[in-house]
Amino acid sequence: MNNNEEIIRLLKEKEDFISGAEIANTMKVTRTAVWKRINILREKGYTMEASPAKGYKLLKSPDLSIEEIRGSISGWSMIIGREIIFFDTITSTNTYAMELAEKGYPEGTIIIADAQTGGKGRLGRKWLSPQGKNLYMSIILRPAIPPRDAAILTLMSAVACASAIKRISSVPASIKWPNDLMVSDRKLGGILTEIKADMDRIFHAVIGIGININLEIEDMPDEIKICATSIKNETGNAQSRTLIAVEIINELDRWYSMLLNIGKKPVIAEWLKLSSTIGRAVKVTVGNNVFTGIAETIDEEGMLMLKLPDNTVKKISAGDVAILR
Ligand code: BT5
Which residues in the chain are classed under CATH 2.30.30.100? Predict the structure, then answer.
C-alpha cells in the first residue's frame, strides 16, 4: 500500500476528522509530508475538509479512485489486480498492456485509464472513450490453456462484467455472443481479448474491458447513439466507476481461479444463463458472409452453434451477431 492509499484508508476508517499528527504517527512520516500528500489527493479529485484544530476529514472521493480500487479489491486468489497502473489519458489500455506483457509484467497486472485517444474494438474498429465517464481497463493473463481455448477468456470476462454490473447497478445486463455486454438491444460495453501464442501455448493474453457508465446518449456520435447505452442512461443515476471496477476485478479473480482449477464448464454454464443470444433467431456476419439461423448453444471452445434453415449446424468461431425479431 503506498502513502496515498494509506491516507485514504485512514480517513475512510475514521469517517470523521483525524489529526495530521495521528496520520503522521501511524504512517511514520512527518506532518509536512502528510500535508503534501493531502494536497496531492485534492488534486486527484478528493474533497477534504481541513481544520487547524481537528485535522482532516474526507468528504468525497472522485468517482474513479485508484486508491480506493487498490484498497477494496478482495480477490480469492489475489492474482487479478496484484498491480494496478493508472493513466489519465492513454492511447489504448490494451495496446499498452500487450507491451507490458511482452516485457514480462506479471499475470494479473491491470491498466486503467480515465480516457483513451485510440480505444479499439475488434478488427481495428474504434471504441469511443471520452474522459471522466466510462471504464477502460485491461488485464494481463498468462493462462496455461491451449490457444484453441482462448475464446473462453472472453466468455469468462463477459460473465464477470455482466454479474458485476447487475449486482452494483441493478441494470439487467446480458451477453451477446461473443463479446458484447447488452441491455436489451443496446450495447453497454464490449470485451477485446488479444493473445500472443504459438501453436501449442498462449504466452500471454490481454483482456480489454470497456463499459459505458456515466456517458450521456447526447454525447455519443450518431452512429453509436442508435445502438448504445450506459448505466446512467438506463438508471437515470450516475454510478461510481470505482465500485463497478472493484466488483469486476473481484468477479474476474473468482472466475479465473475457477477456470484454472475446475475448468471451462462452470464458466460456460454461467455464460449460458447470462446470454441473450441463445435460442434466438440471429443473423451472423463473418467477414463477407452472412448466415441466418437459430443460435442453439455454444460449444466447449466457445464457438456458436448456429442451426441453419436446412437443419444443419454451423460452428462459428468469430463474427457479429444481430438478433432478429
Ligand atoms: C468491442 O469491439 O466491443 C470491444 C471493445 C473493447 C474496448 C476496451 S476499452 C479498454 C480496452 N482498450 C481498448 O483499446 N479496447 C478495450 P467490437 O465488438 O468490435 O465493437 C466495436 C463497435 O462498437 C464499434 O464499431 C462501434 O459500432 C461500437 N462502439 C464503439 N464505441 C462504443 C461505446 N463506447 N459504446 C457502445 N458501442 C460502441
Answer: 281-323
Could you tell which of 91, 127, 320 is best to mutate to test the pocket of ligand 1, judged by most ligand atoms within 8 Å of the CB? 127
- Host H or E run for residue 189: strand 186-197
- Which homologous superfamily is 66-274 in? Bira Bifunctional Protein; Domain 2 (3.30.930.10)
178 lines ligand 1 (CB under 6 A): no
CB-ligand 1 contact for 177 (6 Å cutoff):
no
pLDDT of residue 76: 66
Q: What is the CATH number of domain 281-323?
A: 2.30.30.100
Q: Looking at residue 10, what is its pLDDT?
A: 93
HSE toward the beta carbon, residue 27, CA cutoff 13 A: 26
Write out the CATH class of domain 3-60. Answer: mainly alpha
pLDDT of residue 74: 78
The whole-number pLDDT of residue 237 equals: 95
Residue ranges of the chain that CATH labels 3.30.930.10: 66-274
Consecutive H or E run containing 322: strand 320-323
CA of 289 relative to ligand 1 center, distance in Å: 22
Residues of the chain within CATH 1.10.10.10 domain(s) are: 3-60
State residue 75's pLDDT score: 65
Which three three-digit cell numbers place residue 286? 463473418
159 CB-contact burial (10 Å; exposed 0-12 / middle 13-18 / buried 19+): buried
Q: Are 136 and 112 in contact (CB under 8 A)?
A: yes
pLDDT averaged over consecutive 10-residue blocks of the chain (325 residues)? Answer: 86 92 94 93 93 93 93 81 95 98 97 98 96 97 95 97 97 97 96 96 97 96 96 96 97 96 96 97 97 97 97 96 91
